[in-house]
Design a protein that fits this description.
Blueprint: E1 12-18, H1 32-45, E2 54-59, H2 65-76, E3 84-90, E4 93-97, E5 107-111, E6 124-125, H3 126-137, E7 142-148, E8 163-164, E9 207-211, E10 220-224, E11 227-230, H4 231-241, H5 249-263, E12 270-273, E13 295-300, E14 303-306, E15 328-331, E16 345-352, E17 357-361, E18 374-380, E19 386-391, H6 396-404, E20 408-410, E21 419-424, E22 427-432, E23 437-441, H7 444-461, E24 475-481, E25 487-490, E26 495-499, E27 507-514, E28 520-527, E29 533-534, E30 544-546, E31 551-553, E32 560-561, H8 566-570, E33 575-585, H9 619-628, E34 643-653, E35 659-661, E36 666-669, E37 672-674, E38 681-688, H10 689-695, E39 712-713, E40 727-736, E41 747-751, E42 759-766, E43 769-777, E44 780-783, E45 790-792, E46 796-806, E47 818-826, E48 829-833, H11 836-845, E49 850-855, H12 863-870, E50 885-891, H13 898-911, E51 920-926, H14 928-938, E52 953-961, H15 973-985, H16 997-1004, H17 1020-1026, E53 1035-1040, H18 1053-1065, H19 1070-1073, H20 1084-1087, E54 1099-1103, H21 1114-1123, E55 1131-1133
Parallel strand pairs: 1-2, 1-3, 3-7, 7-9, 19-20, 19-21, 26-34, 49-50, 49-51, 51-52, 52-53, 53-54
Antiparallel strand pairs: 4-5, 5-6, 8-10, 9-12, 10-11, 13-14, 13-18, 14-17, 15-16, 15-18, 16-17, 21-22, 22-23, 24-25, 24-27, 27-31, 27-32, 28-29, 28-30, 28-33, 33-34, 35-38, 36-37, 37-41, 38-40, 39-46, 40-46, 41-44, 42-43, 42-46, 43-44, 45-46, 47-48, 47-50, 52-55
GO cellular component, one term: cytoplasm
GO molecular function, one term: cysteine-type endopeptidase activity
Domain DUF7379: 852-973
Length: 1147
């Protein structure tokens, strides 16, 4: 199917939605309304097809779910066959469990609208968006969807400076909206160049989707030109406002990607299309191609104003009112075309605002009519100064040098500064915040020189002239990779990958061909990661005249390599980015004034390190003088020199060197060693996740990692200094003896500097199933099994293992075995105190009130349980079950017998006088915590007949969730954790896995040798508990049944997950998946193994939940809330004698 041709007749219909203000409980944003305001200005100033664009904007509270749906149908539904329908959304994105049983990842991607997270509200899911697109595209309109939001992904290193447009996924499954009828299934789009795509698999309806980031990343916002903006929206606005005619979507996204990389890390814009050919269609069907290439100057009550400001790239005046530091505009007659008319005057910019600027016409300009609008083109401007943040108290000398600098200025208190200067042991350290690299220098003046050197490098890399009249569509930019017989291809406006072949770097030749009708002067600059600006790609390092039809070739047409230096490579760096800037001008310019030498950069530098060669303090001024500056005053009668820029990046990638696994210890990179193995033989190497994803044919990242971003943090074997992806993948090639890697004989990687306080998890791919096969033990990364090898492009076949850092959430070890705490909520965060005095005071204050006691299970702590009650998400039924006091009981749950723990629990409750104030206590316990609670309440029964004593513990109700009353067949805690992690990583019943479960489960792997003797079926403790007396206590036992969520089908994905687990755990998996319903850890029959003759009768409730989701899954939370109905009467438990004498089983 051919790409649509609208012949320039298209009318643009746009619906722009920006939401900053969300209701309480949902984090607000700051730059979304600014995004849509900017896009509205852009589209308003650039009429489509000679007619005004039809634009509607919904801001904040206007953008309710129904409001957006209605506006979509009304505003975009009027677009006809020759028209363009643009939907732009800036706001929060999220996910929710899918109502579509055929959804491969059991998640719907959603837009969070203004009322989505209010009571009864709902998100707009991707399939509903698809239905709306289908309605519009059916009329033949070209539909474009822009989403500046995200729904999943890991965190960012700059959370204090960057906002993230994502909120946690919903846990409930809202019923389908009947107004949409039967929704189509989700469909994956063709993704242009980058995997794994945006995640927005919008079904049906021909359209183009521009998304802010990949599905495993986050969309960020930051302060740009003094205004909070979405990084993606600001970049896209800039690219659209400066786009050449006939720009395609592919080229647009490549250009935007370059700008986004400057503003945010780990955010890669995505282009996805429902029809392949649409990727090469003209952006917005060419509706912006005929826009005027100029601004308008008009008069208002405050004076003369130009309709552009910092957001449109108008630089602020630098250095006062000096003519050489001015930003100047040529003014043209009203209604004229600056491309053919002569200027009638000049105006100086005196103050720059976000979207408009105050200007002052020169004295020699003809008298202007205050009722007319004058076309204006920027013809000269000063180089803007780069903000610098001063840290750690630099002295007055630094401040003075900074004040005198033409390149730098002191950053304001709330201003984001790309550069920082701090006092260090070597004198001063200059840091590039964008790339996290720095240079140490002993003197203040040299520190300023280094910072200016970095600033000029960025300035040249970002050179642009939006007002150029040079037809860049008539300038050919062709790249040949390899020797002269290599493939010649158009150079993109983004990145070009230059992979090594073994140890041989790729070579290239760049050719710039002038297909215009006039002579151009050109130069090719190379900008390296060391902040060098090299003119040698231009033959002779001088500006070259390029006549019509002639070509300028880099290095005179000789192929050159893009190399990663051996020392840099041996230190563990596999990626290098060199930027290519092609400068074109209508008159000669001084190339030498632009070049500068390299800096010696590093994460850590020795004292006395210095710049390799001289810095050119005025390097950039040469370009200003020769290309784009002239005196303020009389307009020129001859055309002013025009100039333009083309740029892209060359990315060299070199697989890191490998070391042999064998009889001796080998160093992978400094600080990382592979320990000997008796029988495994392989070559081990490191790479980035990004490199490994492209190198293999199957994605290496488990999809479930995106479901728990709060638990996942960045890990790297190597300190990346270039802003590249972390080095977090182990690759094994030439493998023999893989089966010999077992728990008894693991593959061990030793880390000299392991992550402090957190866990590491190693995952591998087994027949499409991601399994946890390794974890951190001290400073040893222990890998207990290897998956089969797979096809890897650079190595033939290999095994790829991903290493992920998991944030520790479980309570740290202490000398105290048990922790009773008072839990409270403030600003939707749970805090706890173990101070006995404060707990007793709170209980006395709430005498006679309702007390909730939470007891955790075999894995984890009570934190997540307390959050479910104290800070429930909107719509949670637990919000309607308030308690006066919430107590939590955390305990060492694996090395202390259950009956002893029960005795400790009763003792600490007596210690805070819980029974002395007439409280009515509800106990809610998870897993093994239910056995602890039951033993305290039921065994032994020592209460004398008659009324309960005054200090009796009045227990109103007991609720247990996933408690193995009949025992559990799991022999080790490690097996339970591996099973839970596997289900979470592979999104088996994904919507029912609680947030932060990954951290808890990975933490349990550290207790790999702990056995669960007292929880085995038929243990003495369980036999005694079944025979205990009736406490006459209202008791509800919740038992999970995962088959109610997703029953394995023969040959299906869940069956493959089970098979993978069987390979890891052997017969231990039999209970969970062969013949008996269960919650993964406990069979439903075990959970219901309670004497039937009790009064009142025990209520056994089957729940569609796994063992780790009772307090987070919709079904689990609803069942707990239903169990908390008021009972007829509380049971009184008097102060017991010694607890535990009834149990014969001890460990």
């Amino acid at each position: 199917m051919a790409a649509p041709d609208y012949g320039g007749r298209a009318m643009l219909h746009a619906l722009l939605v920006g939401i900053d203000d969300y209701p309480d409980g949902t984090s607000s944003l700051q730059g979304c309304v600014a995004d849509v305001d900017a896009i509205e200005r852009l589209l308003t100033l650039h009429p489509s097809g000679g007619s005004a664009a039809q634009i509607r904007v919904l801001r904040n509270h206007e953008a309710t779910r129904q409001g957006v749906v209605d506006a979509f149908r009304a505003q975009l539904g009027s677009a006809g066959p020759d028209d363009v329908a643009l939907f732009w959304y800036s706001g929060h994105g999220s996910q929710q469990p899918s109502a579509d049983p055929g959804d491969s990842d059991a998640k719907d991607e959603t837009l969070v609208l203004a009322d989505s997270r209010t009571e009864g509200g709902r998100d707009l899911v991707d399939r509903e968006l698809g239905a709306l697109i289908t309605e519009v595209s059916a009329a033949g309109a070209h539909v474009v969807v822009v989403l500046d939001c995200c729904h999943s992904g890991s965190g960012t290193r700059d959370l204090d400076r960057l906002g993230i447009r994502e909120i946690p996924a919903r846990r409930d499954v809202p019923a389908p909206d009947p107004s949409f009828g039967r929704l189509p299934p989700r469909q994956s789009h063709p993704v242009i160049e980058v995997q794994p795509g945006s995640g927005w698999a919008v079904p049906v309806g021909r359209h183009v989707l521009l998304a802010a980031c990949r599905s495993d990343q986050t969309a960020k916002e930051r302060t740009i030109a003094g205004v909070r903006r979405g990084v993606f929206s600001a970049a896209l606005e800039h690219a659209l406002s400066t786009a050449r005619p006939a720009l395609t979507y592919v080229d647009l996204v490549r250009s935007v990607a370059v700008l986004v990389r400057d503003g945010a890390e780990r955010q890669d814009p995505q282009l996805e299309v429902s029809v392949d050919e649409d990727a090469r269609a003209h952006v917005l069907a060419g509706t912006l191609d005929e826009r005027p290439r100029h601004h308008l100057v008009s008069h208002d009550e405050a004076g003369w104003t130009v309709d552009a400001g910092a957001l449109q790239g108008i630089p602020a005046p630098v250095g006062g009112a000096a003519a050489g530091a001015a930003t100047l505009l040529d003014l043209f007659p009203p209604g004229s075309d600056p491309a053919s008319a002569l200027p009638i005057g000049v105006a100086r910019v005196v103050r720059v605002g976000p979207a408009s600027s105050r200007v002052e016409p020169s004295a020699s300009t003809v008298t202007l009519d205050e009722h007319a609008a004058y076309p204006a083109v920027v013809t000269a401007w000063s180089a803007p100064r780069t903000p610098v943040r001063l840290e750690a108290g630099p002295d007055d000398e630094v401040h003075q040098y900074l004040a005198d600098s033409l390149d730098l200025e002191l950053a304001g208190p709330d201003e984001a500064a790309p550069l920082a200067i701090a006092v260090s042991g070597a004198g001063y350290r200059v840091t590039d915040e964008r790339r996290e690299v720095g240079v140490d220098t002993p003197a203040a003046d040299r520190a300023i020189e280094v910072a200016a050197h970095m600033a000029r490098w960025y300035r040249v890399r970002g050179l642009d002239n939006p007002g150029t009249k040079i037809d860049l569509s008539a300038v050919g930019l062709d790249l040949t990779i390899g020797d002269s017989s290599g493939e010649r291809q158009p150079a993109p406006r983004g990145e070009v990958l230059m992979p090594y072949l073994g140890d041989t770097p790729a070579r290239f030749v760049l050719e710039v061909t002038n297909r215009t009708s006039a002579r151009l002067y050109g130069a090719i600059l190379g900008l390296s990661e060391s902040y060098a600006i090299d003119g040698s790609p231009t033959p002779g390092s001088v500006t070259t005249a390029i006549d019509p039809g002639a070509t300028l070739a880099s290095f005179g047409g000789q192929p050159v390599t893009v190399e990663i230096p051996d020392d840099y490579w041996r230190a563990g760096h596999s990626r290098r980015v060199d930027h290519v800037v092609v400068l074109l001008s209508t008159s000669p310019f001084d190339l030498s004034s632009l070049t500068q030498g390299r800096l010696e950069i590093s994460p850590v530098r020795d004292e006395g390190s210095a710049v390799v060669d001289a810095l050119h303090a005025e390097a950039f001024d040469g370009l200003l003088r020769s290309v784009r500056t002239r005196e303020f005053g009389e307009p020129g009668t001859a055309p002013v020199a025009d100039w333009a820029v083309l740029r892209f990046a060359l990315v060299a990638e070199r697989a890191l060197g490998g070391v042999a696994v064998g009889d001796g210890r080998s160093a992978l990179v400094p600080g990382v060693h592979v320990e000997p193995h008796p029988t495994l033989r392989a070559t081990v190497r490191l790479s980035s996740q990004d490199f490994a994803t492209r190198d293999g044919e199957v994605p290496i990242v488990p999809p479930g990692l995106a479901d728990d971003p709060a638990s996942v943090s960045g890990f790297t074997f190597v300190d990346t200094r270039d802003g590249a992806e972390p080095v977090d993948v182990l690759t094994l090639a030439d493998v023999t003896g893989a089966q010999s890697v077992t728990r008894a004989q693991p593959l061990v990687i030793t880390l000299d500097d392991p992550p402090s306080g957190d866990h590491l998890l190693v995952t591998g791919l087994f027949d499409g199933v991601h399994l946890p096969i390794g974890w951190l033990d001290g400073n040893r990364l222990v890998i207990t099994q290897l998956p089969p090898d797979e096809r890897v492009r650079s190595l033939g076949s290999a095994i790829r293992l991903l290493v992920t850092r998991v944030v520790r959430r479980v309570r740290g070890q202490s000398a105290t075995v048990a922790h009773l705490a008072l839990a409270t909520a403030e600003d939707r965060a749970v805090t706890t105190t173990e101070d006995v005095g404060r707990i007793r005071a709170r209980l006395a204050e709430k005498a006679g009130g309702r007390v909730l006691l939470l007891v955790h299970g075999i894995i984890g702590d009570t934190r997540g349980m307390a959050e479910s009650f104290l800070v429930p998400p909107p719509g949670s039924p637990l919000a309607d079950r308030p308690f006066d006091v919430v107590l939590t009981f955390d305990y060492e749950n694996l090395d202390t017998p259950i009956d002893e723990t029960a005795g400790v629990l009763r003792a600490v409750l007596d210690g805070v006088d819980l029974g002395g104030h007439g409280h009515e206590v509800t106990v809610v316990a998870h897993s093994m915590g239910g056995l602890v609670s039951r033993w305290m309440l039921e065994q032994p029964r020592r209460r004398a007949p008659g009324p309960a004593p005054a200090d009796a513990l009045h227990v109103r109700r007991l609720v247990t969730a996933g408690t193995p009353a009949g025992g559990s067949p799991w022999s080790r805690i490690e097996d339970v954790a591996i099973t839970g992690i596997t289900f979470g990583l592979n999104r088996v019943a994904a919507g029912f896995w609680p947030a932060k479960a990954l951290s808890v489960l990975v933490g349990a792997l550290e207790q790999a040798d702990t056995t669960l003797d007292q929880m085995r079926p038929g243990s003495d403790l369980l036999v005694d508990l079944f025979a205990a007396g009736d406490p006459h206590l209202p008791y509800t036992a919740l038992v999970g049944n995962t088959s109610l969520i997703e029953r394995p089908q023969a040959g299906g994905f869940v069956a493959r997950v089970v098979a993978g687990l069987t390979g890891l755990l052997g017969n231990a998996v039999d209970l969970a998946f062969l013949g008996r319903d269960n919650d993964v850890a406990v069979a439903t029959t075990s959970g219901a193994h309670i004497p039937a003759e009790r009064s009142p009768a025990v209520q056994v409730v089957t729940v569609a939940s796994n063992h780790f989701g009772y307090f987070a899954s919709p079904a689990g939370v609803a069942a707990i809330a239903a169990a908390l109905v008021e009972p007829d009467r509380p049971a009184a438990l008097s102060t017991p004698g010694p607890v535990g004498t009834g149990s014969r089983a001890r460990r």
